[in-house]
User: Fold this.
Amino acid sequence: MEIGQKRMATRDEAGKRGKIWTKDFILICIANMFIFIGFQMTLPTIPLFVKHLGGNDQMIGFVVGAFTLSALLIRPYAGRALESRGRKFVYLTGLAIFVLSVGSFGFAGGMAFLFLLRFIQGVGWGFSTTASGTIATDLIPPERRGEGMGYYGLSGNIALAVGPSLGLILAGVLNFQQLFLMCAGLGLAALLLSSVIRYKKAEAVQKATALKWDFYEKSALQPSILLFFMTVTFGGIASFLPLYTAQKEISGIQWYFLIYALALMLTRAFAGQIYDKKGHRAIFVPGALLIFFAMLLLYWLPNKESLFLAAALYGLGFGTIQPGLQAWAIEKSPRNRRGMATATFFSFFDFGVGVGALLFGQIGHIYGYGSIYLASAISVFVSILYYLVLLKKEGREGMAA
Assistant:
């Protein structure tokens, strides 16, 4: 209730403080788009490079896992460093690490060196994405945080729409060294743009906590746990949907990811505004139900039309809940803990994707690919139950946002 009253009060000053599209916000969005395009271009091409180096499917899993593990491990430190070292230091350091590691991929002559580079890339990714989300939050007026985070998320959605396809197209005309240098070049462009942003000064860290090593922000746990159950479904889609559609002899898998990205972009235009006006109760359950039905549709999957419908439902559902959950996580945290709140949020994101990939690999091996999406639907259903428990436990006013 108190947060809602503060939001109402700040609306009276919206003429002076309510502007979202400032020069610095535009710069962070463009920089985020460039780094995400560079990253998305590597997703479908790294497995091809592993095969080129003589690696097998198991080695592909290790190389992918090294990146996820290092990003997950570094986020708590990145969140703390955002408050103690400042936004600019963490963000530019992360981008520089990303550029150097990705640019070196094409020079890897063996699997051990590539594994090491992927681990380093995860460090840069964990630093840069944790920082960029926090920086965007700093730049968005509090009373329009959900709307602003939705616009900020569009930069990543555009990258998702063009990055994987662009990477595969370029892999057919360039050698791997040239391809990965181009990905690094996009990261370098992000670094140059980010160097001219006027960063807000972080809240001072009290001496009592300055030396304390912590791994998460407690006030951000509820939306982060809800996000975890949603991103578990990513593991099943990203890792196994191409194999599942091939097994069912259903074409058009490349269109699935494009439709999904376009649906995400469409939802970003209004979902954040709904959150700002009505809170998470207006967006979470409807968005979760869309994802739930998308998973059931993939479990059934009779034809390519159902594949495309599932893509649209999944994009609309995730695009509805993700900006609201991120704004919720930030909104509940103290001002001097925004960096750690962002780190907590994206750590649960990474953890969900990693758990999903590992868990569904076993489920798919034993019960078949279709069972992956039935299990995904169950994960989404659990998130809805957990959310209803939170509402009942804390009460309608206590959960208002």
In short: The chain has two domains: 20-198, 216-401. The CA atoms of residues 226 and 387 lie 7 Å apart. The domain at 20-198 is CATH 1.20.1250.20 (Growth Hormone; Chain: A;).
